[in-house]
Amino acid sequence: MGKILVTGGTGFIGSHACVSLINAGYSVVVVDNLCNSKVEALARIQLITGKQVRFYQADLRDEESIRQIFIDNKIDAVMHFAGLKAVGESVEKPLQYYENNIGGTVSLLRVMAKQKCHTIIFSSSATVYGCQNPVPYQEEMPVSATNPYGYTKVMIEQILRDVCKSDPRFSAVALRYFNPIGAHESGLLGENPNGIPNNLVPYIAQVASGKLDHVNIYGNDYNTPDGTGVRDYIHVMDLADGHTAALAYGMEHSGFTAVNLGTGTGSSVLEVIRAYEKACGRTIPIEITKRRAGDIAASYADAAKAKELLGWQAVSGLEKMCADSWRFTVQNPNGME
Ligand code: NAD
Ligand code: UFG
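# UFG complex -> structure
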Protein backbone atom coordinates (compact mmCIF):
# COMPACT_ATOMS: atom_id res chain seq x y z
CA MET A 1 0.00 0.00 0.00
CA GLY A 2 2.82 2.39 0.78
CA LYS A 3 5.14 3.50 3.53
CA ILE A 4 4.11 6.46 5.63
CA LEU A 5 6.40 8.55 7.85
CA VAL A 6 4.46 9.68 10.91
CA THR A 7 6.14 12.62 12.68
CA GLY A 8 5.03 12.90 16.31
CA GLY A 9 3.82 9.31 16.04
CA THR A 10 4.27 8.47 19.73
CA GLY A 11 2.01 11.41 20.69
CA PHE A 12 -1.72 11.32 21.43
CA ILE A 13 -3.17 11.75 17.94
CA GLY A 14 -0.18 10.40 15.97
CA SER A 15 -0.24 7.06 17.82
CA HIS A 16 -3.93 6.58 17.05
CA ALA A 17 -3.24 7.53 13.43
CA CYS A 18 -0.58 4.76 13.30
CA VAL A 19 -3.29 2.26 14.31
CA SER A 20 -5.64 3.54 11.61
CA LEU A 21 -2.91 3.46 8.95
CA ILE A 22 -1.80 -0.07 9.87
CA ASN A 23 -5.43 -1.25 9.86
CA ALA A 24 -5.77 0.20 6.37
CA GLY A 25 -2.72 -1.78 5.19
CA TYR A 26 0.03 0.87 5.21
CA SER A 27 3.42 0.32 6.78
CA VAL A 28 4.44 2.97 9.24
CA VAL A 29 7.71 4.62 10.25
CA VAL A 30 7.63 6.93 13.27
CA VAL A 31 9.92 9.82 14.09
CA ASP A 32 9.56 11.61 17.43
CA ASN A 33 11.97 13.37 19.80
CA LEU A 34 9.87 12.15 22.79
CA CYS A 35 9.62 15.69 24.24
CA ASN A 36 5.94 15.08 25.04
CA SER A 37 5.40 11.33 24.73
CA LYS A 38 6.75 7.94 25.71
CA VAL A 39 8.18 5.19 23.55
CA GLU A 40 5.70 2.82 25.27
CA ALA A 41 3.07 4.06 22.80
CA LEU A 42 4.81 1.95 20.14
CA ALA A 43 4.43 -1.23 22.21
CA ARG A 44 0.73 -0.42 22.61
CA ILE A 45 0.33 0.10 18.85
CA GLN A 46 1.92 -3.30 18.34
CA LEU A 47 -0.40 -4.93 20.90
CA ILE A 48 -3.42 -3.49 19.10
CA THR A 49 -2.37 -4.15 15.51
CA GLY A 50 0.07 -7.05 15.78
CA LYS A 51 2.47 -5.03 13.62
CA GLN A 52 5.78 -3.53 14.56
CA VAL A 53 6.49 0.10 13.83
CA ARG A 54 9.98 1.25 12.88
CA PHE A 55 11.00 4.06 15.23
CA TYR A 56 13.58 6.83 15.03
CA GLN A 57 14.16 9.10 18.01
CA ALA A 58 15.10 12.37 16.34
CA ASP A 59 14.18 16.03 16.23
CA LEU A 60 12.61 17.29 13.02
CA ARG A 61 14.96 20.26 13.02
CA ASP A 62 17.89 17.85 12.73
CA GLU A 63 17.75 17.75 8.94
CA GLU A 64 20.54 15.21 8.55
CA SER A 65 18.73 12.64 10.75
CA ILE A 66 15.49 13.20 8.87
CA ARG A 67 17.26 12.82 5.55
CA GLN A 68 18.70 9.51 6.76
CA ILE A 69 15.20 8.23 7.57
CA PHE A 70 14.13 8.93 3.98
CA ILE A 71 17.25 7.21 2.69
CA ASP A 72 16.72 4.11 4.89
CA ASN A 73 13.04 3.83 3.99
CA LYS A 74 11.26 4.52 0.74
CA ILE A 75 8.73 6.96 2.18
CA ASP A 76 5.64 7.53 0.01
CA ALA A 77 3.96 10.21 2.12
CA VAL A 78 4.22 12.02 5.45
CA MET A 79 1.70 12.58 8.22
CA HIS A 80 3.03 15.50 10.20
CA PHE A 81 1.86 15.66 13.83
CA ALA A 82 5.10 16.73 15.55
CA GLY A 83 4.78 20.06 17.28
CA LEU A 84 4.30 21.81 20.60
CA LYS A 85 0.65 22.43 21.41
CA ALA A 86 0.09 24.24 24.72
CA VAL A 87 -1.56 27.61 24.05
CA GLY A 88 -0.60 29.19 27.39
CA GLU A 89 3.02 28.04 27.17
CA SER A 90 3.23 29.48 23.64
CA VAL A 91 2.41 32.93 25.03
CA GLU A 92 5.25 32.59 27.56
CA LYS A 93 7.77 31.00 25.18
CA PRO A 94 6.89 32.25 21.69
CA LEU A 95 10.34 31.69 20.20
CA GLN A 96 10.35 28.06 21.30
CA TYR A 97 7.02 27.55 19.53
CA TYR A 98 8.04 29.34 16.32
CA GLU A 99 11.38 27.57 16.25
CA ASN A 100 10.03 24.10 16.96
CA ASN A 101 6.79 24.13 14.97
CA ILE A 102 7.83 26.25 12.01
CA GLY A 103 11.53 25.29 11.99
CA GLY A 104 10.62 21.59 12.22
CA THR A 105 8.13 21.86 9.35
CA VAL A 106 10.52 23.79 7.10
CA SER A 107 13.28 21.19 7.65
CA LEU A 108 10.85 18.38 6.95
CA LEU A 109 9.60 19.99 3.73
CA ARG A 110 13.14 20.66 2.56
CA VAL A 111 14.07 17.00 3.03
CA MET A 112 10.83 15.85 1.39
CA ALA A 113 11.50 17.99 -1.69
CA LYS A 114 15.07 16.70 -2.01
CA GLN A 115 13.97 13.08 -1.56
CA LYS A 116 11.08 13.50 -4.01
CA CYS A 117 8.34 12.78 -1.50
CA HIS A 118 5.53 15.21 -2.31
CA THR A 119 2.53 14.27 -0.16
CA ILE A 120 1.97 15.67 3.34
CA ILE A 121 -0.99 15.53 5.69
CA PHE A 122 -0.66 18.25 8.32
CA SER A 123 -2.18 18.65 11.81
CA SER A 124 -3.78 22.06 11.71
CA SER A 125 -6.37 23.26 14.17
CA ALA A 126 -9.76 24.95 14.39
CA THR A 127 -7.83 27.64 16.22
CA VAL A 128 -7.05 29.13 12.74
CA TYR A 129 -10.66 30.38 12.59
CA GLY A 130 -9.66 32.96 15.23
CA CYS A 131 -12.38 34.76 17.16
CA GLN A 132 -14.22 36.71 14.44
CA ASN A 133 -15.85 34.03 12.30
CA PRO A 134 -19.41 32.83 12.96
CA VAL A 135 -20.07 29.11 13.67
CA PRO A 136 -20.21 26.63 12.04
CA TYR A 137 -16.70 27.19 10.70
CA GLN A 138 -16.21 26.66 6.97
CA GLU A 139 -12.87 26.13 5.28
CA GLU A 140 -13.07 29.26 3.07
CA MET A 141 -13.41 31.60 6.06
CA PRO A 142 -10.48 33.96 6.71
CA VAL A 143 -7.85 32.58 9.08
CA SER A 144 -6.19 34.36 11.99
CA ALA A 145 -4.82 33.65 15.44
CA THR A 146 -4.76 35.05 18.95
CA ASN A 147 -1.60 33.42 20.33
CA PRO A 148 1.78 32.13 19.07
CA TYR A 149 0.59 28.50 18.93
CA GLY A 150 -2.30 29.53 16.69
CA TYR A 151 0.03 31.63 14.53
CA THR A 152 2.28 28.61 13.96
CA LYS A 153 -0.73 26.78 12.48
CA VAL A 154 -1.74 29.79 10.32
CA MET A 155 1.86 30.19 9.12
CA ILE A 156 2.45 26.51 8.42
CA GLU A 157 -0.76 26.39 6.35
CA GLN A 158 0.61 29.37 4.37
CA ILE A 159 3.99 27.66 3.93
CA LEU A 160 2.22 24.58 2.59
CA ARG A 161 0.15 26.70 0.18
CA ASP A 162 3.33 28.38 -1.08
CA VAL A 163 5.25 25.12 -1.47
CA CYS A 164 2.36 23.64 -3.46
CA LYS A 165 2.29 26.74 -5.65
CA SER A 166 6.04 26.55 -6.29
CA ASP A 167 6.05 22.85 -7.19
CA PRO A 168 2.95 21.33 -8.80
CA ARG A 169 3.97 17.83 -7.70
CA PHE A 170 3.29 18.75 -4.05
CA SER A 171 0.09 17.75 -2.34
CA ALA A 172 -0.72 19.10 1.13
CA VAL A 173 -3.88 18.49 3.14
CA ALA A 174 -4.19 20.64 6.27
CA LEU A 175 -6.64 18.97 8.62
CA ARG A 176 -8.25 21.45 11.00
CA TYR A 177 -9.06 19.45 14.12
CA PHE A 178 -11.80 20.46 16.47
CA ASN A 179 -11.55 18.96 19.99
CA PRO A 180 -10.07 15.43 19.92
CA ILE A 181 -10.88 13.36 23.02
CA GLY A 182 -11.30 9.72 23.99
CA ALA A 183 -8.92 6.82 23.50
CA HIS A 184 -8.56 3.60 21.54
CA GLU A 185 -11.38 1.31 22.67
CA SER A 186 -8.91 -1.35 23.86
CA GLY A 187 -7.91 1.01 26.67
CA LEU A 188 -4.28 0.57 25.58
CA LEU A 189 -3.72 3.88 23.86
CA GLY A 190 -4.83 7.31 25.03
CA GLU A 191 -3.83 10.79 26.09
CA ASN A 192 -0.93 11.20 28.50
CA PRO A 193 -0.84 14.84 29.62
CA ASN A 194 2.07 16.01 31.77
CA GLY A 195 1.11 17.62 35.08
CA ILE A 196 -2.32 19.16 35.64
CA PRO A 197 -4.28 18.99 32.39
CA ASN A 198 -5.39 22.19 30.64
CA ASN A 199 -8.05 20.54 28.50
CA LEU A 200 -11.50 19.71 29.74
CA VAL A 201 -11.75 15.94 29.27
CA PRO A 202 -8.31 14.97 30.65
CA TYR A 203 -9.15 17.21 33.63
CA ILE A 204 -12.52 15.53 34.16
CA ALA A 205 -10.80 12.12 33.94
CA GLN A 206 -8.48 13.07 36.81
CA VAL A 207 -11.41 14.29 38.91
CA ALA A 208 -13.31 11.05 38.18
CA SER A 209 -10.30 9.01 39.29
CA GLY A 210 -9.87 11.06 42.47
CA LYS A 211 -6.58 12.78 41.56
CA LEU A 212 -8.21 16.22 41.46
CA ASP A 213 -11.19 17.20 43.55
CA HIS A 214 -13.47 19.18 41.24
CA VAL A 215 -13.80 20.59 37.73
CA ASN A 216 -13.69 24.36 37.40
CA ILE A 217 -16.21 25.45 34.80
CA TYR A 218 -14.77 28.52 33.12
CA GLY A 219 -17.88 30.68 32.96
CA ASN A 220 -21.61 29.97 32.68
CA ASP A 221 -22.58 33.34 31.22
CA TYR A 222 -21.72 32.71 27.56
CA ASN A 223 -24.34 33.17 24.88
CA THR A 224 -24.91 29.40 24.57
CA PRO A 225 -27.94 27.22 25.52
CA ASP A 226 -26.76 26.56 29.10
CA GLY A 227 -24.24 29.41 29.37
CA THR A 228 -21.12 27.19 29.31
CA GLY A 229 -18.65 26.97 26.40
CA VAL A 230 -19.61 24.85 23.40
CA ARG A 231 -17.07 22.76 21.46
CA ASP A 232 -17.09 20.11 18.75
CA TYR A 233 -15.62 17.05 20.51
CA ILE A 234 -14.43 14.31 18.17
CA HIS A 235 -13.33 10.77 19.03
CA VAL A 236 -9.58 10.44 18.47
CA MET A 237 -10.08 7.21 16.44
CA ASP A 238 -12.57 8.99 14.16
CA LEU A 239 -9.98 11.72 13.77
CA ALA A 240 -7.31 9.11 13.01
CA ASP A 241 -9.51 7.50 10.35
CA GLY A 242 -10.05 10.98 8.87
CA HIS A 243 -6.27 11.13 8.35
CA THR A 244 -6.22 7.81 6.52
CA ALA A 245 -9.01 9.11 4.26
CA ALA A 246 -7.10 12.38 3.72
CA LEU A 247 -3.98 10.41 2.81
CA ALA A 248 -5.85 8.54 0.05
CA TYR A 249 -7.11 11.91 -1.21
CA GLY A 250 -3.68 13.55 -0.97
CA MET A 251 -2.02 10.76 -2.92
CA GLU A 252 -4.48 11.27 -5.80
CA HIS A 253 -4.57 15.09 -5.91
CA SER A 254 -1.98 17.84 -5.93
CA GLY A 255 -2.14 21.34 -4.46
CA PHE A 256 -3.15 22.65 -1.04
CA THR A 257 -6.46 21.71 0.61
CA ALA A 258 -7.77 22.60 4.06
CA VAL A 259 -10.39 20.31 5.57
CA ASN A 260 -12.23 20.44 8.92
CA LEU A 261 -12.22 17.29 11.01
CA GLY A 262 -15.11 17.65 13.41
CA THR A 263 -18.50 16.08 14.01
CA GLY A 264 -20.44 19.22 13.12
CA THR A 265 -22.16 19.18 16.52
CA GLY A 266 -21.33 21.28 19.54
CA SER A 267 -21.59 20.13 23.18
CA SER A 268 -21.44 22.32 26.27
CA VAL A 269 -19.10 21.85 29.23
CA LEU A 270 -22.07 20.71 31.33
CA GLU A 271 -23.12 18.17 28.68
CA VAL A 272 -19.61 16.71 28.61
CA ILE A 273 -19.53 16.44 32.40
CA ARG A 274 -22.92 14.68 32.41
CA ALA A 275 -21.81 12.24 29.70
CA TYR A 276 -18.62 11.49 31.68
CA GLU A 277 -20.60 10.90 34.88
CA LYS A 278 -22.68 8.36 33.00
CA ALA A 279 -19.58 6.67 31.59
CA CYS A 280 -17.77 6.34 34.94
CA GLY A 281 -20.80 5.93 37.21
CA ARG A 282 -19.48 8.61 39.58
CA THR A 283 -20.48 12.16 40.41
CA ILE A 284 -18.10 14.82 39.10
CA PRO A 285 -18.04 17.77 41.51
CA ILE A 286 -18.04 21.15 39.77
CA GLU A 287 -17.42 24.77 40.61
CA ILE A 288 -18.37 27.70 38.39
CA THR A 289 -15.43 30.08 38.09
CA LYS A 290 -14.66 33.07 35.87
CA ARG A 291 -14.07 32.82 32.15
CA ARG A 292 -10.62 31.66 30.99
CA ALA A 293 -8.74 34.35 29.06
CA GLY A 294 -8.81 33.76 25.31
CA ASP A 295 -11.81 31.36 25.33
CA ILE A 296 -14.66 31.83 22.88
CA ALA A 297 -18.33 30.93 23.44
CA ALA A 298 -18.71 28.32 20.72
CA SER A 299 -16.63 26.46 18.15
CA TYR A 300 -17.94 23.73 15.86
CA ALA A 301 -17.32 22.54 12.35
CA ASP A 302 -19.20 22.54 9.12
CA ALA A 303 -18.23 18.94 8.36
CA ALA A 304 -19.57 18.85 4.78
CA LYS A 305 -16.25 19.26 2.93
CA ALA A 306 -14.66 16.26 4.68
CA LYS A 307 -17.61 14.10 3.69
CA GLU A 308 -17.64 15.32 0.11
CA LEU A 309 -13.88 15.30 -0.55
CA LEU A 310 -12.63 12.51 1.71
CA GLY A 311 -15.77 10.38 1.98
CA TRP A 312 -15.27 10.49 5.74
CA GLN A 313 -17.46 11.45 8.66
CA ALA A 314 -17.19 10.97 12.41
CA VAL A 315 -19.30 8.15 13.81
CA SER A 316 -18.80 8.11 17.60
CA GLY A 317 -20.92 10.18 19.96
CA LEU A 318 -20.02 11.81 23.27
CA GLU A 319 -21.00 8.71 25.29
CA LYS A 320 -18.47 6.50 23.52
CA MET A 321 -15.79 9.21 23.68
CA CYS A 322 -16.25 9.42 27.48
CA ALA A 323 -16.51 5.64 27.95
CA ASP A 324 -13.25 5.08 26.04
CA SER A 325 -11.50 7.90 27.93
CA TRP A 326 -12.61 6.36 31.22
CA ARG A 327 -11.47 2.83 30.23
CA PHE A 328 -8.01 4.19 29.37
CA THR A 329 -7.89 6.14 32.65
CA VAL A 330 -8.79 3.08 34.75
CA GLN A 331 -6.38 0.77 32.93
CA ASN A 332 -3.49 3.26 33.04
CA PRO A 333 -3.61 5.00 36.43
CA ASN A 334 -0.13 6.44 35.87
CA GLY A 335 -0.47 7.01 32.14
CA MET A 336 1.40 4.97 29.55
CA GLU A 337 4.48 3.91 31.44
P1 NAD B 1 1.29 15.37 21.43
O1 NAD B 1 2.14 16.34 22.18
O2 NAD B 1 0.73 14.20 22.16
O3 NAD B 1 2.09 14.83 20.14
C1 NAD B 1 3.04 15.62 19.45
C2 NAD B 1 4.32 14.79 19.36
O4 NAD B 1 5.31 15.53 18.64
C3 NAD B 1 4.92 14.43 20.71
O5 NAD B 1 5.10 13.02 20.78
C4 NAD B 1 6.26 15.18 20.75
O6 NAD B 1 7.23 14.44 21.46
C5 NAD B 1 6.57 15.31 19.27
N1 NAD B 1 7.41 16.46 18.89
C6 NAD B 1 7.24 17.78 19.19
N2 NAD B 1 8.19 18.52 18.62
C7 NAD B 1 9.00 17.67 17.92
C8 NAD B 1 10.16 17.85 17.11
N3 NAD B 1 10.70 19.06 16.91
N4 NAD B 1 10.73 16.76 16.55
C9 NAD B 1 10.20 15.52 16.75
N5 NAD B 1 9.12 15.30 17.50
C10 NAD B 1 8.51 16.36 18.08
O7 NAD B 1 0.10 16.22 20.74
P2 NAD B 1 -1.19 15.72 19.97
O8 NAD B 1 -2.37 16.10 20.78
O9 NAD B 1 -1.03 14.33 19.51
O10 NAD B 1 -1.14 16.73 18.73
C11 NAD B 1 -0.58 16.35 17.49
C12 NAD B 1 -0.69 17.53 16.54
O11 NAD B 1 -2.05 17.91 16.40
C13 NAD B 1 0.06 18.78 17.01
O12 NAD B 1 0.65 19.40 15.89
C14 NAD B 1 -1.04 19.64 17.57
O13 NAD B 1 -0.75 21.02 17.48
C15 NAD B 1 -2.20 19.29 16.65
N6 NAD B 1 -3.52 19.54 17.26
C16 NAD B 1 -3.85 18.95 18.46
C17 NAD B 1 -5.08 19.21 19.05
C18 NAD B 1 -5.44 18.59 20.38
O14 NAD B 1 -6.42 19.04 20.98
N7 NAD B 1 -4.76 17.56 20.85
C19 NAD B 1 -6.00 20.07 18.42
C20 NAD B 1 -5.64 20.64 17.20
C21 NAD B 1 -4.40 20.36 16.63
N1 UFG C 1 -13.05 24.16 30.25
C1 UFG C 1 -13.53 24.27 31.54
N2 UFG C 1 -12.75 23.81 32.56
C2 UFG C 1 -11.53 23.23 32.35
C3 UFG C 1 -11.04 23.15 31.02
C4 UFG C 1 -11.83 23.62 30.00
O1 UFG C 1 -14.63 24.78 31.77
O2 UFG C 1 -10.87 22.85 33.32
C5 UFG C 1 -13.91 24.61 29.15
C6 UFG C 1 -13.30 25.70 28.28
O3 UFG C 1 -13.62 26.96 28.78
C7 UFG C 1 -13.96 25.40 26.92
C8 UFG C 1 -14.13 23.88 26.92
O4 UFG C 1 -14.08 23.50 28.28
O5 UFG C 1 -15.23 25.98 26.85
C9 UFG C 1 -13.04 23.13 26.16
O6 UFG C 1 -11.76 23.54 26.63
P1 UFG C 1 -10.42 22.78 26.20
O7 UFG C 1 -9.29 23.44 26.92
O8 UFG C 1 -10.60 21.32 26.38
O9 UFG C 1 -10.35 23.03 24.64
P2 UFG C 1 -10.26 24.42 23.83
O10 UFG C 1 -11.39 24.39 22.85
O11 UFG C 1 -10.14 25.59 24.70
O12 UFG C 1 -8.84 24.26 23.13
C10 UFG C 1 -8.68 23.41 22.01
C11 UFG C 1 -7.24 22.90 21.90
C12 UFG C 1 -6.30 24.05 21.61
C13 UFG C 1 -6.78 24.86 20.45
C14 UFG C 1 -8.20 25.30 20.70
C15 UFG C 1 -8.79 26.11 19.58
O13 UFG C 1 -6.84 22.27 23.10
O14 UFG C 1 -5.04 23.50 21.27
O15 UFG C 1 -9.01 24.15 20.89
O16 UFG C 1 -8.98 25.29 18.46
F1 UFG C 1 -5.99 25.94 20.25
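# post-check
The pocket of UFG (ligand 2) is lined by residues 85, 87, 125-127, 179, 198-200, 203, 215-218, 229, 231, 269, 292, 295 (CB under 6 Å).
DSSP finds eleven helices and 14 strands in the chain.
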